[in-house]
Design goal:
Blueprint (H helix, E strand, L loop, with lengths): L1 H19 L12 E11 L2 E11 L11 E2 L1 H5 L6 H13 L2 H4 L1
The structure holds zinc ion.
Zinc ion binds next to loops.
């Protein structure tokens, strides 16, 4: 049940984050899309598959920014929620090595 609530919420937050970063920081022009790649965001309630868009650099940023960028790289750098990372680490520290491996 929590996953049924969390998955659409995560997707809505990601969509909002990406849309807010689609405009160029300097000239506010909407950056063009260069496709997307799939990633899995790991949460306590399960893995949420997401589409991470890649955006072309705005022409006004030639030479000062990479040719493409992915807004989700800033939001989800490790593709795992902090609480999931904590519990994974905690669990791994408590079980014997053979069971963890
Ligand atoms: Zn620009």
């Amino acid at each position: 049940m929590p996953a049924a609530v969390q998955f659409p919420l995560v997707r809505a937050q990601v969509a909002s984050w990406v849309e807010a970063r689609r405009a160029c920081d300097i000239c506010q022009t909407c950056q063009k899309s260069k496709g997307h790649y799939s990633l899995v965001f790991r949460t306590l309630y399960g893995d949420v598959p997401l589409q991470s868009p890649r955006l072309h650099r705005c022409p006004c940023q030639t030479g000062i920014a990479p040719a493409t960028s992915s807004p989700l790289r800033e939001l989800l750098p490790d593709h795992i929620a902090p609480e999931r990372l904590y519990l994974d680490s905690r669990w791994a520290s408590l079980v014997p090595y053979a069971a963890a491996a």
